[in-house]
């Protein structure tokens, strides 16, 4: 198991457990989170996508025959750099080709993945040359097109048809006659079936000198080379020789097939990372299902050296499968294909601590050179990703902590200045409303989140009542620690039952330690003033300065949990994507 940890708490967390003091305060920390989510089929952050290509009405560039087209795919980076990543085969004599070769790409939700498609007519003299060896400058361009990968995936049938244009021709010339390219996406999943099991052991050997063992299980799949690859872990149970662990979830695709061999190892946790093997068993998922239906236990064994031979010594300890069930787990992309949307909302901090917007040291300063301030950066980078998942691109936008002209301090006012509606058109609309508001309100205070969270929750609850296939994402950008901490907790606990996630960006130099309390990743599950505990984690917080100069962008830090929060909500309410 090999991971060295400096303390018992850290070590137990590394294998999915917690120290005694942590487990006493809440069980939600006592999971092997990464393994748990992945084994449940929650692949929200990334999925393998297969792209296939077809075209219609291509330009005919050959004199005595039709064009011989090939598609070349490029990735366009954020800095504008273009990298070739794929080529199809050449289809001979066709102006309406369907290419057989597929391009596989990893989809990352939190990144805008811009693709460039260039169709070439391959000259006859090169037909015997491998496509990867072709010099593109020697081929004729039939046209090109570009899009974000998310634009394809959000189409109901995951197909997007693009107009091909030729850069060397003006748009008013023949570019409109260059044909169309259709890109179709398929998510590569051999199985969406997930097995849920409750495992227990009896009569485990005590490996500790002054106490009982602290057991946990590791489930691994065996590959052809005989190597075992871990796919799932349980939590650590302290001082227990007859442990019953929380349910584990295994995706059939993860392990290959239901009859693929699995190794179930029981370890005694040690804080130095050198965990003692108590015993193990080798069974397939089908075998484990039979153990459950028969109510029988499987004896554990340990490899033992007898002379020069390694033999398996059978132990008194046994493994039981208390519960076994199989369910179909839909993916994030399944919901998108069924028409579900992510609706973006934004709330901006206009408290006086931001500084006078007319002075360069203000966090709200609008630089005449066009250099965006931290608020503008956060709006653009988060909105740039989320806009593709919102069909009408009309975004509710609010401000808080300011005094509108001739009015009292407001902790939730419409950014566009309207008293009737809060929506603006697109990311550009948010930017314009933000700039305008800076000159039409007086910065005040204090920093209160409760009002904007309740406003967003009202929209989400109305959508839920209408049975709309929508999930809402509220971005709050603030320069200070929230003043109404308990009221904010109350609002968040109430909102945890709604189709809503909240992303909080902290800008400026304030100490945001208290803000991390709102993010359950960094603390215990939120509790309201009445003692009610949040049904799920809906908050992701990041201080802007932490990621400004690093490799991880603000967008990736903020959006990393969003697909998982979406899926957790849908599955907790048993909402399935319609086929």
UniProtKB/TrEMBL annotation:
InterPro entries: C2_dom, C2_domain_sf, C2B_Copine, Copine, Copine_C, VWF_A, vWFA_dom_sf
Chief location category: membrane
UniProt keyword list: Calcium, Cell membrane, Lipoprotein, Membrane, Metal-binding, Plant defense, Repeat
Pfam families assigned to the protein according to its UniProt record, in alphabetical order: C2, Copine
Record-level GO BP terms: cellular response to calcium ion; defense response
Ranges of residues in domain C2: 29-162, 177-301
CDD domains (alphabetical): C2A_Copine (cd04048), C2B_Copine (cd04047), vWA_copine_like (cd01459)
Compartments (UniProt record): Cell membrane
UniProt cross-references to SUPFAM superfamilies, sorted A to Z: C2 domain (Calcium/lipid-binding domain, CaLB), vWA-like
One Gene Ontology MF term: calcium-dependent phospholipid binding
Leader sequence segment: none
Source species, domain of life: Eukaryota
Gene3D superfamilies: C2 domain
A single Gene Ontology CC term: plasma membrane
Family of the protein in this entry: Belongs to the copine family.
PANTHER family with a match to the protein in the record: C2 DOMAIN-CONTAINING PROTEIN, COPINE
Name of the protein described by the UniProt record: C2 calcium-dependent membrane targeting
Organism of provenance: Corchorus olitorius
